[in-house]
C-alpha cells in the first residue's frame, strides 16, 4: 500500500514537471510572438503615416501644376470659384482663432495647474482634475453650437457691431476646449519637480507663492512651454467649432469681430460641397491640408525642441 502511494506521488511529480515544461513552452512562444506583433503595429503606423504624406504631396503637386506657388503663398484674396487662391486670408483666420484661444487657455490652464499642484489637497485634486478633464471629452460640435448660441449672443450685448459668425466667440470656445490640455500637462510638469526643492525654498523663508513662482515654475518650464506648443497645435487644427461659429468668409483681417474662414473650415466646406473630382478646387483642399500639416509639424517639433532644450534633470 505504501509502495502504491509512492508510485502515485512520483507520477504526480512527473505530470507536474511535464505540465511546467508545457507551460514554459507556451510562455516562451508568447514571449517570442509579442515583440513581432508590436513591431508589426509600429510598422503599420509608419506605413499609414507615409501613405497620408504621399497622398497629400502627390495631390498638392497636381494643384501646383495648375496654380502658381507664388500666387498661392503671397496673395490675400481667396475665392476658388473665381480662380483666386491667396491662402494668406485662410492663414490669417487660422492665426486669429489660435491667438484668441491661447489668450484664454494659457492663463486659465496655468492657474488651474498651479492650484492643483501646489495648493489643493489630495482629496480636492482627485475630485477636481477628472472634472476638468471631462471638458476634453466633450464633442467639438457641441462646443461649436455653444459658441454660436450662447457665447455670441453674450458678446453681442458688449460689442454691438459683432457679426453673427465671428472669430472672437469661436476663438474663446476653442480656448476653453484646450484648457484641460494646458492644465493637465502643466500640472504633470510641476508635479515632477522634486519636493526637496520646495522644502529647501521654504526652509530659506520663502512663502508658498514665492516657492511656486521662483522655484517650481522655472524648474518645470520645459514641460509648461511644451504644453503651450501642443495646445497651439491643437487650436490650429480645430475644425468643427470654427466651421460652425466663425463663418465661411475668407478674409485677410486681424479684426476678431468679423466672420472669417480657417484652413480647416475651408477643407470642410469643399469636402461637403458639390465640387467635382479632379477639378482645381478639389486639389486645392490638399494644398491647404499640406500647409496645415506643415504648421502643426512645426509646432510639434518646436515643442520637442523646447522640452529637450530646457529640461531640468534632478
TrEMBL record:
Major localization listed first in the record, in broad terms: membrane
N-terminal signal peptide: none
Stretches that traverse the bilayer: 37-57, 85-110, 131-151, 163-183, 212-232, 281-303
Cross-referenced CDD domains: TM_PBP2
Record's bilayer topology term: Multi-pass membrane protein
Record keywords: Cell membrane, Membrane, Phosphate transport, Transmembrane, Transmembrane helix, Transport
Subcellular location: Cell membrane; Membrane
The family this protein is said to belong to: Belongs to the binding-protein-dependent transport system permease family. CysTW subfamily.
Protein name: Phosphate transport system permease protein
Record gene name: pstC
Amino acid at each position: 500500500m505504501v509502495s502504491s502511494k509512492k508510485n502515485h506521488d512520483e507520477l504526480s511529480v512527473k505530470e507536474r514537471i511535464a505540465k511546467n515544461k508545457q507551460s514554459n513552452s507556451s510562455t516562451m512562444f508568447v514571449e517570442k510572438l509579442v515583440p513581432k506583433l508590436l513591431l508589426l503595429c509600429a510598422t503599420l503606423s509608419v506605413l499609414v503615416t507615409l501613405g497620408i504624406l504621399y497622398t497629400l504631396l502627390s495631390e498638392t503637386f497636381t494643384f501646383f501644376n495648375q496654380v502658381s506657388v507664388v500666387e498661392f503663398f503671397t496673395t490675400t484674396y481667396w475665392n476658388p470659384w473665381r480662380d483666386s487662391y491667396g491662402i494668406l486670408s485662410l492663414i490669417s483666420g487660422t492665426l486669429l482663432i489660435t491667438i484668441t484661444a491661447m489668450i484664454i487657455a494659457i492663463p486659465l490652464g496655468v492657474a488651474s495647474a498651479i492650484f492643483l499642484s501646489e495648493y489643493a489637497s489630495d482629496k480636492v485634486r482627485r475630485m477636481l482634475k477628472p472634472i476638468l478633464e471631462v471638458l476634453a471629452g466633450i464633442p467639438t460640435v457641441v462646443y461649436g453650437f455653444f459658441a454660436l448660441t450662447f457665447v455670441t449672443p453674450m458678446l453681442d450685448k458688449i460689442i454691438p457691431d459683432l457679426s453673427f459668425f465671428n472669430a472672437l466667440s469661436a476663438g474663446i470656445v476653442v480656448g476653453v476646449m484646450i484648457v484641460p490640455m494646458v492644465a493637465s500637462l502643466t500640472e504633470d510638469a510641476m508635479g515632477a519637480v522634486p519636493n526637496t526643492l520646495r522644502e529647501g525654498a521654504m526652509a530659506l523663508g520663502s512663502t508658498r507663492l514665492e516657492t511656486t513662482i521662483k522655484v517650481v515654475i522655472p524648474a518645470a518650464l520645459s514641460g509648461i512651454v511644451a504644453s503651450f506648443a501642443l495646445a497651439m497645435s491643437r487650436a490650429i487644427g480645430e475644425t468643427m467649432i470654427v466651421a460652425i461659429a466663425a463663418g465661411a468668409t475668407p478674409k485677410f483681417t486681424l479684426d476678431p469681430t468679423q466672420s472669417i474662414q480657417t484652413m480647416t473650415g475651408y477643407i470642410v466646406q469643399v469636402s461637403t460641397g458639390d465640387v467635382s473630382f479632379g477639378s482645381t478646387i478639389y486639389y486645392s483642399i490638399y494644398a491647404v491640408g499640406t500647409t496645415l500639416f506643415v504648421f502643426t509639424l512645426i509646432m510639434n517639433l518646436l515643442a520637442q525642441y523646447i522640452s529637450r532644450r530646457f529640461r531640468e534633470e534632478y
